[in-house]
Structure prediction request, 1752 residues.
Amino acid sequence: MRLLLLNGPNLNLLGQREPGLYGSTSLEEIEKDLKSFSDTEGIQLECFQTNFEGALVERIHQSIGKIEGILINAGAYTHSSIALRDALLGTGIPYVELHLSNTSSREQFRHHSYLADKAVGIVSGFGAYSYRLALEGLIFYLRQAN
Amino acid sequence: MRLLLLNGPNLNLLGQREPGLYGSTSLEEIEKDLKSFSDTEGIQLECFQTNFEGALVERIHQSIGKIEGILINAGAYTHSSIALRDALLGTGIPYVELHLSNTSSREQFRHHSYLADKAVGIVSGFGAYSYRLALEGLIFYLRQAN
Amino acid sequence: MRLLLLNGPNLNLLGQREPGLYGSTSLEEIEKDLKSFSDTEGIQLECFQTNFEGALVERIHQSIGKIEGILINAGAYTHSSIALRDALLGTGIPYVELHLSNTSSREQFRHHSYLADKAVGIVSGFGAYSYRLALEGLIFYLRQAN
Amino acid sequence: MRLLLLNGPNLNLLGQREPGLYGSTSLEEIEKDLKSFSDTEGIQLECFQTNFEGALVERIHQSIGKIEGILINAGAYTHSSIALRDALLGTGIPYVELHLSNTSSREQFRHHSYLADKAVGIVSGFGAYSYRLALEGLIFYLRQAN
Amino acid sequence: MRLLLLNGPNLNLLGQREPGLYGSTSLEEIEKDLKSFSDTEGIQLECFQTNFEGALVERIHQSIGKIEGILINAGAYTHSSIALRDALLGTGIPYVELHLSNTSSREQFRHHSYLADKAVGIVSGFGAYSYRLALEGLIFYLRQAN
Amino acid sequence: MRLLLLNGPNLNLLGQREPGLYGSTSLEEIEKDLKSFSDTEGIQLECFQTNFEGALVERIHQSIGKIEGILINAGAYTHSSIALRDALLGTGIPYVELHLSNTSSREQFRHHSYLADKAVGIVSGFGAYSYRLALEGLIFYLRQAN
Amino acid sequence: MRLLLLNGPNLNLLGQREPGLYGSTSLEEIEKDLKSFSDTEGIQLECFQTNFEGALVERIHQSIGKIEGILINAGAYTHSSIALRDALLGTGIPYVELHLSNTSSREQFRHHSYLADKAVGIVSGFGAYSYRLALEGLIFYLRQAN
Amino acid sequence: MRLLLLNGPNLNLLGQREPGLYGSTSLEEIEKDLKSFSDTEGIQLECFQTNFEGALVERIHQSIGKIEGILINAGAYTHSSIALRDALLGTGIPYVELHLSNTSSREQFRHHSYLADKAVGIVSGFGAYSYRLALEGLIFYLRQAN
Amino acid sequence: MRLLLLNGPNLNLLGQREPGLYGSTSLEEIEKDLKSFSDTEGIQLECFQTNFEGALVERIHQSIGKIEGILINAGAYTHSSIALRDALLGTGIPYVELHLSNTSSREQFRHHSYLADKAVGIVSGFGAYSYRLALEGLIFYLRQAN
Amino acid sequence: MRLLLLNGPNLNLLGQREPGLYGSTSLEEIEKDLKSFSDTEGIQLECFQTNFEGALVERIHQSIGKIEGILINAGAYTHSSIALRDALLGTGIPYVELHLSNTSSREQFRHHSYLADKAVGIVSGFGAYSYRLALEGLIFYLRQAN
Amino acid sequence: MRLLLLNGPNLNLLGQREPGLYGSTSLEEIEKDLKSFSDTEGIQLECFQTNFEGALVERIHQSIGKIEGILINAGAYTHSSIALRDALLGTGIPYVELHLSNTSSREQFRHHSYLADKAVGIVSGFGAYSYRLALEGLIFYLRQAN
Amino acid sequence: MRLLLLNGPNLNLLGQREPGLYGSTSLEEIEKDLKSFSDTEGIQLECFQTNFEGALVERIHQSIGKIEGILINAGAYTHSSIALRDALLGTGIPYVELHLSNTSSREQFRHHSYLADKAVGIVSGFGAYSYRLALEGLIFYLRQAN
Prediction:
C-alpha cells in the first residue's frame, strides 16, 4: 500500500508559527514519525509540502495509478480552493482531511471546507497527533475497502 | 484515568438502523471494543447511552470530580442541544466529539454543531472506527496535558 | 395492519389549550374516533402521547417489526427535533405528518418541519378532522404499496 | 352545496408527465372520481383546468355568489402567483390547497406557497388520492361552518 | 397628448373585493373620472384592464408611437412580472406606478416592485384618489419634458 | 384645517444641491407655492425645516392638538430614524410621506423607510411637484375622513 | 396568590458551574431567598428545577387553575424549545422571563428567545439578583392586573 | 429531425426594443436564418413566439412525440416561470437555453434561471448569433445522443 | 452614591403617547417616584430627558467623575445610535438598560440594541415599574461591586 | 487653499476615552499639530467638533464656496448617518475619511461606512497619526487635481 | 487574427477525469480540433493550459498587443479568482467564457463566476463541443466589431 | 530598520492597466520613489512583486528575522487569500495594507479583506500616493513601538 501525505501553505512554518495555536513540533518531525509508523504497518508513505495551489493540484494528478490513499492538511486552501477539490475528485483517490487546530473554534471563514463533504473522514484539533489519527483512519478504511 | 463514553439518541439502533449509512456494528460491540482497548491502556471507561437530552445532561453533571475526559457522539442532539453544550462547559471536563458518518456530506442542518468549538478535537466519517480514533485522541490529549 | 398514532408535546391539553386555535375536541375523543374508524377498516390502531422527545424516539424504536405505518402530530417537536427525524428514518416505517392548525399561517419558525420531506404525505389545518384525513391517507398509501 | 375544483399549469399532462413523480392517473379520471363522490354527498362539483394564470384568476372571479368552496391544485403557480392569491382572497371563498407530490421533498423553490397561509387546510403527497382527501376536508369544513 | 391607463389582475373586482382594503369605488367609476379630468386638460386617455400578464405586455407594445405616457396599477404583477418591466422599458414610454393601498404596510412580498426603479414617479395609499394624483403627476412630467 | 410641512436634513440646500437629481427649485419657492395653494383651499399651512433629528421630533410633539395632518419629506432620516417614526405615531396625526427623487432607483439603503408603513400615502419621484401632489392627497384624505 | 418558579437545564449546578459567569450563589439559596421574600408579601411560591424539557412542559400543565404567575429561567431551553413556549401559551398563565447573565453579550444563538415576545417582562444580567427583580416585577404586574 | 424554436415575452420587439442592448436584427430575420441553416442540415425547424406564459406551456405540451429538441429564449419568463420549467421537464424533450444579452452583466434578478440546471447547454451574450450557436449545439447534442 | 437617569426621544410624551402601549404615568411622576425611592436609599439621583442624540452623548460625557451608575431608557436611539454606545463605553460608567414595553414583542427593528451587550443588566416590559426594577438592580450591582 | 477638519461624536473625549483603543493624544493636540503642519504648507485649516449629527450637516453646508477639501472623522456617525453622506455629496467638496482605530478589527457594525464609497481616500488604524496622513493625502489630491 | 485558448486547473486531466461528467475527449484532441478549424478560417490560435493561477495571469499579460481575443475555460478558478478577472480586464482583450459541463446544475459554489459579467458571451454544457461553439462566437464577435 | 514592500497580482501592469482607475505611474517608478524616501529616512526598503499567491507566501516566510515591517498591496488576493493572512500572522511581522483605488467604491467582493483586521493600519484611494502614505504610517508605527 502506498499513501501520500500532502501539506498546504504555511505548514512548512510548523513549530515556528504561532506555537500557542499550532504546537511546537516541526513538519519534518511529523513526517518522520508518520513514515516510521507506516513502515511498521508495511506501508509506503510519501510526503509533499508546498505553498502553491497549482503544485498541490499537480502532485495529486501525479498520484493517479500510484497512490491508494491521501492524507491532506490543505491549510488555508481548505477554505478557498475549488481547484484542489476538483483535483482530488478527478483522480478518485480516497482521502482523509485533517487539521492541527480545531477549525470550528476559529474565524467564521474557517468553518467551511471545500474538501470535507467528499472526504472519507475528518480529524481536527489534536495538534500534531491529528496526523497520526488520520493516518490510522485512512489505513483502516483502505484495508476494510479491499 | 477514568473516561466516559456518551451516546445520544438513536445510537441504540446501531447495526440495525440504515446500515448503509452507519455500518453494521452494534453499540454493544463498539463499547466492548473500547473497553478492552482502555483496559490495555490502564484506563477505566464508562459507557452510557440515552435518547433523552435531560438524561445526557444529568450524566455529565454526575461526572464532576469523577471523570477526566468525555467521548461524545451526541447524534442528533449535536445540532440542536444548547443544554448539552452548557452541561459540558459547566463541568469543565475536556471532551472529544465524534460521528460515525461524515456529517458535512449530509443535510445542511447537520453541518453545525453546538459542541464543536469547545471540543478538544473532532473525528468523523470512519464509521465505528471513529470511536477508536477519538478515544486514542482523548487519551493522548489528557496524557500530554498532565 | 397495525398502525401507530403518535402525539407530541402539549397535545394532551387538546380541548383545553387555546380552543380558538386548536378546537374543543379532546385528544381522548380523537383517539376514540380514530380507533373506531380503524376497527371498521379491520385495522389495529395504537395511540401514544408524550411530552418527552426521548419518549417519542423510543416509542418509534419499539415499533420496528410491529407497526406498518405511523400517524404523527409531533407538535412543537416538528420544528426542532432532528432526533425524531432520525428515529423515523432509522426504523424505515412510512409515516404521515399532520397538524391541527395551518402551520403556514402561524409564526415563521413553524413553517419548517424536520419530518416533512421524508413523509408519505402531509395534512394540516382541518382541526381534529386532520387526524381522520391523515389516517385515510396512510391506509390508502399502505394498501396501494402492498 | 356547489364546489369548484381548479387545476393549474401542466396538470392536463397528468398520467403522461413524469409518472414516477405524479402517478399514472389522468386528470379526467380524477375529476370523474371526485364528481361521483360528490354526487353521493349531494354536492355539485365543477372542474376547470388551465395553463393560463389569467384564466385561473377569472374563473375564481366568476365563482362569486355561485361557489361555496374551492379545491385548488395550482401547480407551479402555487409558488409564483400573487395574482392567484389576490383573486382567492378577493372573492372570500374558502379554499383547500392540494398537491399530488410532497412539495417539501422537492426543489427549495417549491417550499413556499403564496396560497397556503390563507387556506382552510392543505393536503400533499398522496398522489391522486390527495384530491379525495382535500375534497373530504373541504366538505367537512363547510358543513361545520354552517 | 395621448395617455394610457393600465390595470392588472383583480382590479376588475374594484368596489367588490375587500372594500375595507381597496375602497368601494368601481374601476368603471375611476376610469370615467380620469377621462373627464383628461378631457378638461385636453388629453386623450385610453383605459385597459386585463388579468393576463401577456395581454398587458402586448397592450404596451401596441402603444409604441401612439401613447406618450402610461399610468399603471399592475396589481399583483407589480411584484412578480419581469416581462412587464421589459415591455415598459422596451417601448421607452415614460410611466407612473400607482397603488390603491399603501403596499409598504402589507405583506413583505409586496414591498418590492419590478417597475418602480424605472418609473417617473410613484403614488400609493390614497385609494381611488391615487389614480388622480398619478395622472396629474404624469401630465406635469410630460409637459415639463416637452 | 391646519397642516404642517416638515423638511428634514439637507433640504435647505434645494436648488443648490445636485440639481440633476433634485431639481433647481429652492425650498422657499416650494413652501411659497404650497402656501398659496393652501390659501385657495382655505387651509393654513405651516412650514419647518431642520437638519436635527431631535428638532423634527420636537416639532411633531408641538403639533398635538394643533395640526390635523403632516406632509413630511424626512430626507435621509427617512431611512435611519426610528425616533421620527415614534414621534409621528405617538401624536397620532395622519401624515403623507414624500420624496423629490424616486428613492427606489437610488442606493439600496434608500429603499427602506421607517415611516412608510404607517403613512396615509406616499408620493415620490416628481421633483418639486411631489410636494403639490402630496398636499392634494393629504387634503383629500382628511376631507374624506371627516 | 400562588406563584411558580421554574428553572431549566444546568441550573442545578448554580454556584458550581462557571462562577465567573453565573456567580457563586446556589439554586437552593436563591429559592430560599425568594420564598422568604414571598412570605413577607403573603405569597406562596413553589419551586421546580429539571433538566428535562418534557418535565418543564408537564409542570406548566399542572399549574392550570393553581398558579397565577410563573417566573422562568429556562436556561438553554430559552433558545431552543418551542414546546415550552406552547406550554406557557397553552395554559395562559402570565410569566416573567429571567436570566442570570446578560444573554445579549454572549454567543449569537443566545440572542433569540422563544419565550420573550409573549412574556410580561424580561430581566437579565443581575446574577442571582435577577430572580428577585423578576419576582417583584411579576407581583407588581399581577396586583395591577387584578 | 424536427426541432422547435421558442421565444418568450417581448422578443417580438427584437430590432425595435433597446437596440443598444439587443441588437437590430428582427425576430423574423433570426427565424429565417435559422430555418435556412436547418434546411441545409436536413432538419425541420418550427418557430413560435408568444407573450403568454400559458401559451408557451401549451406549445411545449403539443411537442410531445413530434419534436426532438427545443431551443428556448424564454426572455423574462426565464427568471420567473416555474410552469415553464415543469412543462419542459414534463415532456422530457432536451432543450438548449439561450439569451441575446449576457444576463450575468445585467440586474441581479436576471442571474437566476428556472430552466438552466436541466438544460443540455446554455449560450448567452452573442446577440442574434446566440441563436445560431445554440442551434448548432442542440443539433450536435442530438446527433451524438442517437 | 450619585446616579443618573437618562431618557431618550419621545419619552417626554409619556402618559400622553399611545397609553395602551406605554401606560398612563407621566415621566415627571416616574422621576419623582425614583427620586423619592433613592432618597430613602441615601442615593442622589439626577434626571435628564432629551430628544437629541447629541445632547444624550454630552450629558454622558459630563458624568465622568461625578456619576457612579446610569439608568438609561434610550427609546428609539437604543436601536440606531452607535454614538450613544460609544459615549457610554468611553466614560466607563456602568449602566442598566430599561424599556417600558417588551421590545421583543414589537417590530423586528426593535429586537436589536446597540447598548445591551455592554450593559450591567436589562429590564423590559413592566411599564413604568421597569424604572424601579432597573434602579434596584443598578444599586444592587454597585453596592456589590464596591 | 482652505481645508476643514471635522470630528464627530465622542471625539472631544480623545485622550480620556479608552486610551488603549484610541491613544492618549487629545483632540486639541491633534488640531494644533495639523494646523502647524498646514501653516508650513501655506494652507489654512479650520477645525470643528460636535456631537450633533445636525451640526455636522450644517457645518458642511457652510463650507460651500469657502472650503476646498474636508478631512472627516465622523466617529460613530460614519456607520449610521445618511444625512452626513448627503451633506457631503450635496456640497460636492472632496473629502478624506479617517479613523484612529482600525475599524475592520472591531464590531461588525463598524465595517460599513456611509461615507467611504464617495471619499477621495481612506486612512485608518494609525491612531492620532491617521490625521496627519489623511491631511497629506488630501493636500496631494487637491494639488494634483488643480 | 490571433486568438488564445486558455485552460485552467485540472483540464489537463480531460478524458481521464470523471468522464461521465466531462466526456472522454482529451485536451490535446480539443486543441488540435480548434486549431484545424481556425486554420480554415485563416486564424492563428495559441493554446495554453496551467494549474497555476499566477501562470494564467501572466499569460494574459503577455497577450497585450499580440492577441485579439481570448477563449477561456478557467475551470475551478472561474469561481474563486479575482486575480484572473483583473488580468483580463487590465489587458482589455475581449474574451468568451466556456465550460464543458452545465455549471448551473452542479454545486451552488459553481453558480457564480468572477469572469462572466465582463465576458463577450458564455457557452456551457455541450462538453468538448462547447469549445467549438465558443470559438465560433468569438470569431463572429471580433469580425462584427471590426 | 529594514522594510519590505509586497505587490500582488497584476500590479506589474501599473501604468498600463486601466489608467483611469489605477493612474499612469508604473510600479518601477513607485518603488524608486519609495526607496529614495526610505534612504533619506535611513531605512532599507526591499521590493517584491509576483502574480503567484504561493510566491507571496514564501517571500513573507523569508522575512522572518530580517524584516521589521511590511507594506502590502495584495491586489486581488486581498479579497481571496487566507494563505496570505496566515503567512503574515505566522511571521508576526507588523504590516500596513494599502490600495491604489478606493476599494469600497468598487465591486461588492472588494469590500472584504482577509488582511485588514490584523493590519496596523490601512490606506486606500490616493493612487500611487497611497504607497507613500502607507510607508510613512508604517515607519511612524515602528518608531513609536520601539
Observations:
- DSSP finds five helices and five strands in chain L.
- The mean pLDDT of chain L is 95.
